[in-house]
Amino acid sequence: MYLVAIAWMYVVVMMTVVEATSANGTVLGALFTFLLYGALPLSVVLYILRSPARKRARLAAEAPVDPGPGDEPSHHEPDSSHHAPGDAITPERKEA
User: What is the DSSP string of 17-55?
Assistant: First the structure.
């Protein structure tokens, strides 16, 4: 996807250079050529093509992360199960 965008911008830059350096062309015409043939259409196309990736990233950021098997939750993080912690009361030590 990006290779096509880079190639298109190369073509647009070459068109801009020709417009600016030709006998009948102007720098203002070159600027409008760059904006109207290159930057504006390419930004719209890339925005549309990146929308599925943005949606996946948003859903991944909103999804809760479950610890894998064998992963112990940290004692500093709150428990998401809304139950009292298992080691809330310290056990009694027997003296010898």
Answer: HHHHHSSS--HHHHHHHHIIIIIHHHHHHHHHHTHHHHH
